[in-house]
Amino acid sequence: MPKTPHMSRREFVAVVAAATGTVMGATIGLPAIGYLIAPALTKASADAWIPAGPVDNFPAGVPTLFNFNRTKVNGWETTVNSYGVYIIRNEDGSIVALSNKCTHLSCRVNWAPDAEAYICPCHDAYFNIDGQIIKGPQPRPLDPYETKVEENILYIHFVES
Ligand code: FES
């Protein structure tokens, strides 16, 4: 007569306890792991159209500074960065938007009406109203932003760098 497998009561209880522990661990542990790693899987939006307000808010021929903030989520780290854009509405209706970040070492340039130039306070870089280099150590003109107008609202195309 063949021998039948036999499990003692003690072995049966141990197997059931192990199985119950495994199920309970998975039930509690998997959502917790998902919660903890979810921020790392989140991708921040790379670009956006930023509303700058009615076009009429920007006087023709005068560089006007517009500031906005962008929140960047990188894993568990959230950073709020501020950006400045000089907006120039030309007489012909065209609009130019220039970053106020100096292309040398990223200080903020300021429009100086008397000099008719954007001047960087850090190392004395000068840019003309179109953002082109007048003098200084900067390697390139001010960075332009793409713009669009919809229903009289000006939008700046922000691209995360
Ligand atoms: S950062 Fe502007 S000139 Fe150096």
SS field, number of helical segments: 1
Widest β-sheet, arrangement of strands? 1-10-9-4-3-2
Structure class? alpha+beta
What's the mean pLDDT score? 89
Q: What shape does the CA trace take?
A: elongated
Tell me the β content: 35-45%
Helix content: 10-25%
Distance between the termini: 78 Å
| N-to-C order of helices and strands | HEEEEEEEEEE
Could you give the count of β-strands? 10
Radius of gyration, rounded? 30 Å
Largest sheet: 6 strands, antiparallel
Give me the oligomer status: single chain
Instruction: Give a list of the ligands.
Output: FE2/S2 (inorganic) cluster
Task: Explain this structure.
Strand 2 (64-74) and strand 3 form a beta hairpin. This protein has 1 helix and 10 strands; from the N terminus they run αββββββββββ. The chain is elongated. The protein is 20% helix and 39% strand. The termini are far apart. The strands form 2 sheets. It has a 6-stranded antiparallel β-sheet, with no helix packed on it. It is an alpha+beta fold and 161 residues long. It has one helix at residues 9-41; strands at 47-54, 64-74, 77-89, 95-99, 110-112, 117-119, 126-127, 133-135, 144-150, 153-159. The structure holds FE2/S2 (inorganic) cluster. Residues 102, 104-105, 107, 120, 122-123, 125, 136-138 line the site of FE2/S2 (inorganic) cluster (FES).
SSE order and pairing:
Elements: H1 9-41, E1 47-54, E2 64-74, E3 77-89, E4 95-99, E5 110-112, E6 117-119, E7 126-127, E8 133-135, E9 144-150, E10 153-159
Antiparallel strand pairs: 1-10, 2-3, 3-4, 4-9, 5-6, 6-7, 7-8, 9-10
Bound molecules: FE2/S2 (inorganic) cluster (FES).
